[in-house]
Model the fold of this input.
Amino acid sequence: MSDKKTCPVCGKPEAEKYTPFCSKRCADVDLSRWLGGVYRIPTDEPPDVGGWPPDGEEDE
Done:
């Protein structure tokens, strides 16, 4: 088994500076996926359809 870790985005060897990624580009791609909702945790809860601020927390 190899001790070399690979970038989760492209599979190249990881760079210490950008661990666990190989480059800033791959780190940014991963961040974009998180922010865009590509990575999600499954749940049985219904989606929140309320606005901001949540009900009952408005300033008067």
In short: The chain has one helix and no strands. The domain at 1-39 is CATH 3.30.50.10 (Erythroid Transcription Factor GATA-1; Chain A). The chain has a mean pLDDT of 86. The longest helix spans residues 24-35.
